[in-house]
Amino acid sequence: MDAILSYLVMFMMMTLAVVQAQLRTGFYSSSCPSAEAIIRSTVESHFNKDPTIAPGLLRLHFHDCFVQGCDGSILIADSSAERNAVQNIGLRGFEVIDDAKSQIEATCPGVVSCADILALAARDAVHLSGGPSWLVPTGRRDGRISSSNQASNMPSPLDPVSVQKQKFSAKGLDVHDLVTLLGAHTIGQTDCRFFSYRLYNFTTTGNADPTINQSFLELLQAQCPKNGDGLRKVALDKDSPVKFDVSYFKNVRDGSGVLESDQRLWEDPATKSVVQNYAGNIRGILGLRFEFEFPKAMIKLSSIEVKAGSQGEIRKVCSKFN
């Protein structure tokens, strides 16, 4: 079984290298030179009204790439489509992509893919939140399949680190990529229902998850009372929830990870060492290291199983196939 998995990962990495060669920065420099500026201004306009749209766009891109590759399949609006899978509950930011697409279509019809708009919007969302910017290789084409059934292998807040590693490895992402990408939880919120089991009756013991810092436990219990509103939103980063920084890693180090899957990173030696590197004690220097590593991990993520060349299509409207 291990040999088969190793072969699959090797094949995927070879495929990734071929596809990355097809993607390139400035892909639209002559066919639609204003595309990236239109996307940036659209994201900025929505962000100025509601900064919480930034983690929404980042999560939307991540969920897109983990199913069928980064091909815009998450954007299809249909009862049996990907976006309606249980794993994709709470996804948001669709209107931002639709807005950017309609403006681009008015300027360069049939040229820019929805998959590329999503990848560029995720980058812009990070930058607007105080995080790094980077050159996004473009040239993705939009997929023609979107099925909720295919979302079953999405990473889950309940996953132990061993399962997280398997799911990321199956996409050609290593342990370093896993921890780095989870650093996106430095911005954004989650629902009480996704972690409240940790607060009151963890593993049916009647007690809270012992890995939760005691003062943080009291804060979470106040925000998510027993039998309270499971849809209530809680920041994934208690210290700087709208700023893209290394605070998330310090929280995990200190027992203040909200999701179980986040806190478990501190218990596995391989993931713990990456968290330690980012959390550190030398303010600024280690923040810059995360700022350097996050773009590299995002470029790797956004190259997963992409369609390029004559594959797929360029959708006229992002929410439906041509």
Largest sheet: 2 strands, antiparallel
Tell me the CATH architecture of the largest domain: Orthogonal Bundle
Please write the string of helix (H) and strand (E) elements. HHHHHHHEHHEHHHH
Distance between the termini: 40 Å
Low-confidence runs of at least 5 consecutive residues:
11-21
Folded structure, characterized:
The protein is mainly alpha-helical and 322 residues long. It folds into two domains: 32-154, Orthogonal Bundle (Peroxidase, domain 1); 161-301, Orthogonal Bundle (Peroxidase, domain 2). Helices cover 46% and strands 2% of the residues. The protein contains 13 helices and two strands. A two-stranded antiparallel ribbon has the order 1-2. α3 packs across α5 (114-128), α7 (175-182) crosses α13 (285-301) and α10 packs across α12. The longest helix has 21 residues, at 2-22. The N and C termini lie far apart (40 Å). The relative contact order is 0.17. Substrate binds at residue 155. Belongs to the peroxidase family. Classical plant (class III) peroxidase subfamily. Belongs to the peroxidase family. Ascorbate peroxidase subfamily. Residues 22-322 form the Plant heme peroxidase family profile domain. InterPro entries: Haem_peroxidase, Haem_peroxidase_sf, Peroxidase_pln, Peroxidases_AS, Peroxidases_heam-ligand_BS, Secretory_peroxidase. Residues 1-21 form the signal peptide.
